Amino acid sequence: MASLSFPRSIIRMVWKQFQRKEITLTSAIVIVLIIFFVGTTLFSPAKPPTFLTRLDDMQIDLNKLKQDTKDAILIEQDDGEVFVAFRLKDSAHFLNDDRGGRLLFTYRPEPQKSSALPLTSATNGRDFTVNMPLPTYPLTLANNTFLINNEHLCSSSLNMSFVVLVHTATENFLRRASIRETWANHRIFRNHTIRIAFLVGQPEKDSTQVLIEHESVMHKDIIQGNFMDSYRNLTHKGVLGFRWVSEYCSHAKYVVKTDDDVFLNVFKMFEKIDTNVFNKQKHIWCPVRQNGTSEIQREKGKWKIDASLFPNMKHYPVTYCNGYFVILTGDLISSLYEASRTTPFFWIDDVYLFGLLVDKVGGVKFETLPNLNLNENKAIECFNSNVTCDMFVANANSDGVMDRLWFRAINQNIALVKKYSNNLLLKNLNTTKT
Question: How far apart are CA 424 and CA 410, in angstroms?
Fold first, then answer.
């Protein structure tokens, strides 16, 4: 209390001046309020911020929350824990008067009797719980989906053979660079037009975001969604791709979905187009997982599914694709995107994008693609052999492998290279070293 003796002595002096009518009552009140504010700020011990510790009796109005929120980010961890961070306006009714800040909710997907899952919020070391409806459909259905949108990448004036949607992690700059300079380098091809769009979410680090924005300015092939870039957000990324094609590249004859560690023998792709292998409608070519043959993991594993999802089932009830490489006819994409509006969200993207949505659309034909390989060492061995490697798709996860496979594919497919490449590539054929 000794720390308050100085402001208290001043208050007593002001009171005596008022009693002697040396100052007015209004002036005295103003002076006392100023002294009280300064005194409690400078002389009082630091007071920890006040947090809400109970929401049991608090009715959360989601519309009001949206009005009070500057932005919200969904963060999904690999272990299944999910965080929704709300950055509130200073006027937010969730906080006292003029105190701005952040309110952090988390939920853990566990079986519940009710339709709402529990959300817990860690505030100053304490938890509180409230039942709150969870997002039911993909986040990329929202109006503010595109944080980065290169809408002119796929010009309507182009006779687009196919557009490639690459699911890529935000920090994989070198992988994207390798793809641009090898099998997806649209500047070196003729007779067929190809464009590539790299799909990303939001990175954890601001410095990574700056680099992505610079990359987008340089190459104009980045599409960024308003969600955190994580494994459990791949479904959001996939719907983002469907939406982008529907709105900005709907004239593409074929759409290829792949990952950033996949090498495509693009010359064989062109050959299949020219020989009418893909001359169909409402078709998907991929590594097919037939209905009732793919086991649902319940106990453990990377794809462990809670018992509340697909209850009483041992296998997924739809045919779907292993999504590392999928070819779709262009007429399907808008229908798949529209189907996501009424198909409840499921975080395993292969099942959702190429199973549940396809099943909702109906009438789609699956065909198995041959010569796909996910063993990087076998791919290197195949392309290094003296005979032409028959691999259509190969894994290229390690640094430099994408470039090595590309150079070997050129040397092994000279006739196709000459048929589908322009002078920019042809003039370097004799000088290329593997």
Answer: 13
